Amino acid sequence: SHAKEILHCLKEKYFRELQDLEVDGQKVEMPQSLSWYPEELAWHTNLSRKILRKSPQLEKFHQFLVSETECGNISRQEAVSMIPPLLLNVNPHHKILDMCAAPGSKTAQLIEMLHADMNVPFPKGFVIANDVDNKRCYLLVHQAKRLNSPCIMVVNHDASSIPNLQIDVDGRKEVLFYDRILCDVPCSGDGTMRKNIDVWKKWTTQNSLQLHGLQLRIATRGVEQLAEGGRMVYSTCSLNPIENEAVIASLLEKSQGALELADVSSELPGLKRMPGITKWKVMLKDGQWLEEWKDVPSNRQTQIRPTMFPIKDEEKLKAMNLERCLRILPHHQNTGGFFVAVLIKKSPMPWNKRQPKVHQKLPQRTEDTEVTAANSDNGSKCITEEPTLAENEESKKMQELQNSDTEQSKKEGVCGPPPSKKMKLFGFKEDPFVFLPEDDPLFLPIQKFYALDPSFPKMNLLTRTQEGKKRQLYMVSKELRNVLLNNSEKMKVINTGIKVWSRNSDGEQFGCAFRLAQEGIYTLYPFIHARIINVCIEDVKILLTQENPFLSKFSSETQKKVKDMAMGSIVLKYDPDPEKPDDLQCPIVLCGWQGKTSLRAFVPKNERLHYLRMMGVEVFKAKRKEEESESKTAEEVQHRLAQTEEGMDVEDKEHDLVTKMEAEIGEESSHSPVESSAMEVENKIEDLDQSSKNANNHVSQENDDTHTSNVKD
User: Fold this and answer.
1) Which end of the chain offers a freer environment for a tag, N or C, measured as fewer CB atoms within 10 Å?
2) Closest among 156, 111, 153 to 135, alpha carbons compared
3) pLDDT, tens digit, for every residue of 312-362?
4) Does the annotation place 102 within a ligand binding site?
5) What distances in angstroms separate CA 577 from CA 96, 127, 574, 610, one per listed residue?
6) Can you supply one Gene Ontology CC term for this chain's record (predicted)?
């Protein structure tokens, strides 16, 4: 419902303002919807980044894009990279693995598909998003966090040897097979040549020859973990057949009929595509062309592999249906170049044939060894370049460790990182994931205060601290809890869970030490039966434009409801009125705080602006005024702080009108959402400057990471 409102807002307001607009003497082209993307949810604009950023006429549109992207309501992405998730045909009950997920725009699409029905807080499916690069995993977390889902887990592994996970099914352990796998492998990126100048400088024939082996290993590991009847999409942003058809042909050949290429010619109507190719040659570094493996000089046979060449047997080749692959060429619809193949698994891989039966009979403790043995076995059969003896040794060591530690940690509900001696760990050490015990005294006051429904899955609550005070409570879906508890020793989890409650020292005197967090409110709301105030649209505007409005400013209905309610954290709910079609037509749930004489919303800044835009309130503030406000002297700022009244936030004393709310967009304050309790504000005034600086440093650091890592898409 929110996406539809944004689309309405874009069409009716922002696109209309771009009509007949000229920038530097050139008429601005209107954004066009991508004809092949469902429900007009993807749009393309020809405006360059420079023009968008620098042109005063486009400033309002630019601020809209930046702010909505920050909230997670819009994602900016290369058009062709939107294709693989669409071809996966995801349903909310699917277990999904994204093997090479960073920077995360495709992962965001997958999460969105899981939550197709907003009335289901916990879809049965989940996304496990993996990346080999620890730094890029944090970029992935940042992208996924915007969508506020309890069904996403970010892990850090080499995709070509990602471990088999186990889950508990009715008391017995089973290997986790995925219904859908996205295998968007590292590639030479030559399809991005229109936007990526580096490709022209650095491209050599060696790029694809060096990547082919890795791509094949990742794809092989993917199909091993795919459930029968499941779908895997293999994609690259390259047009080189050695990275594309050669990998698919090799995979199909060694699958001995277990895999087939799906015919997706009828899917995504409107997308211009070319069929996969069946004939190609391999070029050496010195420019020499080779047509067959037998032509490869003996001194080159370690770099050039037989799997890089097309299959000669015409019958075999015909049965593979390589023409079912998709090739997207840049000049056909003004995009990047891209390759996609959709594979369906009809039966277990030949080297894994006995695997499911073995697992049912084995006692719990030996199961892990069996899984890894199966892996090492397939490694030697199907991946000639890299035997997996080292993995096998590692698995034995891991097994010894598991026998002693696993049972104990599981009883305590603690999912720590894998032991560093047993596995090579790179990057930051992660805090453990600790599930709340069933009898934890922490939960009872929360349950009572918010009158939580008996069906509330309290077993899915977790914290990131084993000792000391628990400051934040996070929530995962039941299925992800199962994955976490059964695999903590064999996988490095970077992040999972959505924040639902935060400790608030002032709350204790009102009966509950934890206040609601806006990130998790849409997940929690169906279970809350107390402390809900239904508000009208005028009340919502007051809550979002004024920092700490007095109760007298609200409608008489709201005042009546608040009168009999104790102070503390509350839920503010807006339901659309179908009889007033001009009003906002999607429901809104906000976290708030009720004080003695006032009511306030705890909503991050960009989210506030989002709701106000949807309600037709003008939130744009020109940069010129922004720069003026930046150049205020320190004395003026100190004077303003001194003038601040009790319970009012520093930024918003002078900003009762929303037109002034975005004066600081791009300044430090935009990075730190206004989320402190009414009673804590005074104490935090002195700290605000310092914390803003820290937030800014953190964000600029994150941006640095983004630029330094070579972004795949």
Assistant:
1) N
2) 156
3) 999 999 999 999 999 999 999 999 999 999 999 999 999 887 544 433 333
4) yes
5) 37, 35, 9, 20
6) nucleus
Find all residues with CB under 8 Å of 661, minimum gap 6, and list them: 545, 605, 608, 609, 612, 619, 621, 652, 655
End-to-end CA distance of the chain: 29
Torsion over CA: 538, 540, 545, 551 (sign): positive
227 assigned to a ligand binding site: no
Tokens 């009828």 label which residue? 266
* 101 labeled part of a ligand binding site: yes
Domains of the chain and any CATH numbers: 2-71 (no CATH), 79-100+159-277+314-348 (3.40.50.150), 531-619 (no CATH)
Counted residue by residue, the chain has a size of: 713
Predicted TM-score of the model (pTM): 0.79
One-letter amino acid for residue 237 of the chain? C
3-state secondary structure 393-419: HHHHHHHHHHHHHHHHHHHHCEECCCC
Q: Which residues does the annotation mark as catalytic?
A: 237
Give 57-93 pLDDT, tens digit per residue: 888 899 999 999 988 899 999 999 999 999 999 999 9
- Which residues, in sequence order, are bridge partners of residue 415? 433
* The pair of three-digit structure tokens given for residue 299, joined into one six-digit string: 């001194």
CA distance 661 to 668: 14
- Is the separation of the CB atoms in 165 and 490 below 8 Å? yes
| The token pair that represents 474 in the structure block | 């996070």
Closest CA to 592 of 644, 656, 666, 528: 528
Give the pair of three-digit tokens for residue 42.
């993807």
526 among the known binding-site residues? no
pLDDT < 70 stretches in the chain: 354-429, 507, 622-713
Q: What is the DSSP letter of 551?
A: G
DSSP strand pairing (95-98 vs 126-131): parallel
